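User:
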Amino acid sequence: MKILLYLLFPCTLMGTGIFSQVPVAGAPLPAWQKGYLDLHHINTGRGSSAFYILPDGTTMLVDAGEISPLDSRTFTPRNSKLKPDDSHKPYEWIVRYIQQVSPNKNKAVIDYALITHFHDDHFGAWYPDAPEAASGKFKLTGITGVAELLPIGTLIDRGYPDYNYPYDIKKQADQYGGGEIRFGHTMGNYFNFLSAKQQAGMKVAGLKAGSRRQLRLRHDAGAYPSFYIQNVKANQWIWTGKDSTVVQHFPAIDTANRASWPDENSLSLALTINYGPFTYYTGGDNPGNVFPGDNRLRDVETPMAKAIGEVDVATMDHHGNRDAVNEFQVRTFKPRIWIGQSWSADHPGHEVLIRMTNTHIYPGPRDLFATNMLDANRYVIGPLIDRAYKSQQGHILVRVLPGGAVYYVIILDDSTSAMPVKAVFGPYESKGK
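Assistant: Predicted structure:
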């Protein structure tokens, strides 16, 4: 109904303020206002980071990726370039972005920060020349750098408080790092950071799968009774879709058989953000495609999709990599919008893109957006990319209007710190529950 009214009487509605926060290309991004849900997907070219401004002004950061500058991937056409340039570290660009869009620009605060899992492109990598914190107790990279410059109220990760699943991460990170460069140093730095910041007042918690009360509006929850965040998955625990009940997806760890352990990606946190009829999904690097030789339980997307049902906007698990975004998830979610937080030439995989665009899997239109689309991927996949994607480069903002019935996708220029609006897509109408 709101879309119809907008099409018939755009000027009238613009005057009421209902649509006044939707910009046009070339104009500055109008500031967030109370009642809006802004979902920013920040592109530094070095991993995933998203910053959410909830309807009452509560703020949440999901991941703060910073691949090590010593990683050989960063020197090849396989990787995206640092955005907007190399004059600052990735964590500094994330902070500058947050300061520009924050409800309180003079005193930007992150109420919640979530680390979906312990990979460098999601929480930062230690490297010898990383800057030191003012205390000298840890180095600044990814989330540790963000938290040094902006206060975080509560930090949530997949391991707190014991960090012992599927192994003792504090003692064995070097041994079982899964290919991450100097993973033992990275986790040691992270634990030093947690200790220092907890002493300074930051709270730390593990995500409670199944809960819709852990991540709550902090400032004026009563004004938005239809808003909630549903915790879907944490480690081996997956929400069933009923009440707050969860099931244990992975069996008890057999310490003698490492091949049976779940890998880091399949332990990623996942959640949905719900605002009236609007639903948004994000799930770190959770996989869903099981290849020959894989443990069948590596498919965590299928049980999550069964619990969640349809969504309006979905971020691509694992950046759209070939082991994720399986057919069952695509058929079940049926999103109008797919968002790829991409930084590599295999984001997305060709077969993944075919699944997302296949109208035999689910009918109707769908628009795809990427933070980075590398030439290397475009050369291999070909014209399907240009046909499928509405935007292939830039920060991606989903702005949901008050009440959740209507939303827009706004692309911000990532080549400059000014972040002018590049393009606006919509209005889109939410599906409803």
